[in-house]
Amino acid sequence: MTVEGGADPDAVDPGATASDAAATGAAGPGDSGDPDGAEADRTGGEGAGPDGAARDGAAADGAAGPDGSPAAPGEGGADEELDEDSIALRLEQLILGAERRYTPFQAARSAGVSVDRATRFWHAMGFADIGQAKALTEADVLALRRLAGLVEAGLLSEPMAIQVARSTGQTTARLADWQIDSFLEGLTEPQEPGMTRTEIAYPLVELLLPELEEFLVYVYRRQLAAATGRVIQAQDDAEMVDRRLAVGFADLVGFTRLTRRLEEEELGELVEAFETTAADLVAAHGGRLIKTLGDEVLFSADDPGTAAEIGLRLIETMANDETMPELRVGIAFGTVTTRMGDVFGTTVNLASRLTSIAPKDAVLVDGALAEELTRTGEAPVSEAEAAEAAAEAEKQGEEPPSYRFALQPMWQRPVRGLGVVEPWHLTRRG
């Protein structure tokens, strides 16, 4: 695929070449470049398109000659490099489903929005400035038109539309990185004799793209239905933002030492195994995985008993895996502010502090969660109370209370930023 007509001659320095563009280091949509404006904007040179490659007509075909025209084979680039560029461009077109047609200015004008608004939307989606390279497609125009249309119709305010763009961009960027780094990389190894990874990737993407796209939409709709149900069940509007939740952290012990001892590949495999195991356990027992932080995961649950079960399951599962280091878990219960899929507030901070002081392979909970477990009959206040309840039940000819958990108070201690707290050691009863 070639860029249609190269760069916009009215928007770009006519003397700029592909090498000028590459020298700026400007990142395109989807790359991490300068979020406040790529260097290409300041120099007038060509920027980079959605895959971060140089975006004038010469770059589309390979190397550029002295006058900015495409170089002939052998002049400024090997045939193999030209082939790689050609396949990469074809791969981009396959994924995007359209050819590059617009500069950012042209795309904004076609969508009927100002360049300022279009830029705000693009930045929110995680796309860096690309100067005035002709790198955008009809899909980019349609996305702008949809977001702007929601604002114009009054369905979303502009700040809300920005939040939608940002949350979608951040989530899908991580998904795309994971699939390329792990999934597609694994499928293209080992390489076929005489074929590059790019050449192998094209037919694989061609086969997988429609299936993965359909699966993504399915999972999104399922998750959206679950989130909508939680919102509808909220008692009032305030509860939709500030809710009472159990929040837990699970942290691998001695991870810093592991980073010095293990090879990078081994460390990556350990982190992936930990995150995968934690995510499966949290989901299976009715919790929600908020985020993963390499050696730590953050989860939440509406019910304190659910959070307690998840914490203990994590400890038990990891303890049975000889490849895993010890784990420690801290859980707190209270009011939590939820925003863009994340959680904030004192309860979250307390759960983090409890995790940092928890013994190896142990779960510490705060007083509020311990109180909820005893109130709901899932744990006795003390072993003495449990014995009394069992004796009374036996006297009445009834079944003794069945407790899931046991709680042991620990020494009160000052916790940085939170004052004095009394942790409780949570274990499985019996």
Overview of this structure, please?
- With about 425 residues, the protein is α+β, with helices and mostly antiparallel strands.
- The chain has helices spanning about 20-25, 40-45, 55-60, 80-95, 105-110, 115-125, 140-150, 160-185, 195-230, 235-240, 255-260, 265-285, 305-320, 345-355, 365-375, 385-395, and strands spanning about 240-250, 290, 295-300, 325-340, 340-345, 360-365, 405-410, 415, 420, 425-430.
- Strands 1, 2, 3, 4, 5, 6, 7 and 10 form an eight-stranded mixed sheet that branches. The chain has a two-stranded antiparallel sheet with strand order 8-9.
- Helix 4 (about 80-95) runs parallel beside helix 9, helix 5 packs across helix 7 (about 140-150) and helix 12 runs antiparallel to helix 13.
- The chain is elongated.
- The chain starts with 17 loop residues before the first helix and ends with a strand.
- The relative contact order is 0.07.
